Amino acid sequence: MTRKICVATVLAAAILAAAATFPAASVKAADTEVKIDNFAFAPQRTTVKAGTTVTWINDDDIPHTVASSTKLFKSKPLDTEDKFSFTFTTPGSYEYFCSIHPHMTGAIVVEAATGSSAAQ
Question: What percent of the chain has pLDDT over 70?
Fold first, then answer.
């Protein structure tokens, strides 16, 4: 019986050691929210990792849209408390605006995702 416990312990340790040497297959990026209120996007500029889903939430009393300057994404008119989400998969800078109120602008900056969440 002792031999079986010893073999099982060694096997478990070997599996854990092997798992620790391989990076995680995927790291889910944290999702981010942008508020729409008082004819403004807040924050106006947001930096995220690739794979992040950004959700815009209309907290204003009138409809607004979220439209990419390059036509990559566009929401329907969002009434109060409506939401629009888009997942950014490619690094780059993405400017957007409200097509109903074009003076309302914002930007999402997407950085390359990393396989590690270690602090730098």
Answer: 71
Give, as one character, the DSSP assignment of residue 76. P
Q: What are phi and psi of 24, to 5 degrees?
A: -60, 140
Distance CA 56, CA 43 (A): 10
Angstrom distance (rounded) from CA 31 to CA 11? 38
Residues near 23 by beta carbon (within 8 Å), at least 6 away in sequence: 115, 116
* Distance in angstroms (rounded) separating the CA atoms of residues 113 and 44: 22
**Do residues 106 and 36 make contact, with C-beta atoms less than 8 angstroms apart?**
no
Give which of 62, 68, 66 is closest to 38, Cα–Cα: 62
Q: Is 86 helix (H, G, I), strand (E, B) or coil?
A: strand
Question: What average pLDDT does the segment 50-78 reach?
Answer: 97
What's the pTM?
Answer: 0.72
Task: Provide the strand spans (E) within the chain.
Answer: 32-37, 40-42, 45-49, 52-58, 67-68, 83-88, 92-97, 105-111
Whether the predicted pLDDT of 100 surpasses 80? yes
